[in-house]
Design brief:
258 residues, mainly alpha, two-stranded antiparallel sheet, globular
Length: 258
């Protein structure tokens, strides 16, 4: 793929080409929550149009995620507790998760993918809490969505093609190099284009390219890359924990007991 063809593909992705459609309510919620003049009542009225989303947001507001002693019993209380900024990216993340199947489809284990994504999101949240360098809830969503470009990459280039990704490509760097060489684009570039189309915050989109500038990128990107290494290590395919502690100390000054 030429440079012009690559740029054209990414531009088409940013316009929605080959991307799954997210919930209309979630997309509208992003627009509404971004408006400084928007009221809590307007947000609640919109969420009420999607009962499944309403129930899940109430569960999130009452989870250990927000560490509140008093339960949120109404959508209004849930919206206030979560906050407009976090509400919009959580709604987007929930909608994004619902657009893909579970189980193994076309040789791809979606359940394993989302399990690894959840590990990464939780680790990113914990690192954000320990370092105090960025919002823990935003770090969770950034970590959760860090690999979303691979889902789209798989559907576009691998699924149904007979192409296989061997164990020799378990290294993140080797995988990106293989993608770039064979298809002219890598899944992180696709992820950035997709998140841009879905109107995720710039800070989360920037995490898709954070690996290019470590350790000199913004704190959220650095946290996501360290969380990625940790989650891969837990799944038994990457650095030993000694190396991860070294990275944590180098990037954030964290000790092994952090």
């Amino acid at each position: 793929m030429t440079t012009d063809a690559q740029a054209n593909l990414l531009q088409r992705l940013e316009s929605g080409y080959s991307l799954p459609t997210l919930s209309v309510v979630a997309i509208r919620l992003v627009e509404l929550a971004s408006n400084e003049d928007c009221s809590v009542n307007e947000i609640v009225s919109l969420i009420e149009k999607d009962p499944a989303l309403a129930v899940r947001l109430l569960k999130i507001a009452n989870s250990a995620f927000f560490k509140s002693a008093e339960p949120a019993t109404t959508l209004r209380q849930a919206v206030i507790r979560i906050g407009f900024q976090q509400l919009r990216i959580m709604a987007l993340s929930l909608s994004l998760r619902d657009t893909f199947p579970m189980g193994t489809v076309g040789g791809f284990d979606y359940e394993k993918f989302w399990r690894a994504s959840l590990y990464r999101g939780l680790m990113a949240k914990s690192l954000a809490e320990h370092t105090g360098t960025c919002n823990p809830e935003e770090a969770f969503v950034a970590g959760l969505t860090l690999g979303v470009g691979f889902l789209i990459f798989f559907n576009m280039f691998i699924k149904g093609s007979g192409e296989k990704i061997g164990h020799e490509l378990d290294s993140f760097e080797k995988l990106l190099e293989w993608e770039q060489t064979k298809f002219g684009v890598n899944h992180r570039q696709i992820g950035a284009a997709a998140l841009r189309h879905w109107k995720f915050p710039d800070s989360i989109i920037e995490c898709q390219e954070g690996f290019l500038r470590l350790p000199g990128c913004n704190p959220l990107s650095t946290i996501c890359e360290l969380a990625r290494n940790m989650s891969v290590s837990l799944l038994g395919r990457s650095k030993v924990f000694h190396d991860l502690f070294r990275d944590a100390k180098e990037w954030f000054g964290l000790g092994e007991n952090a």
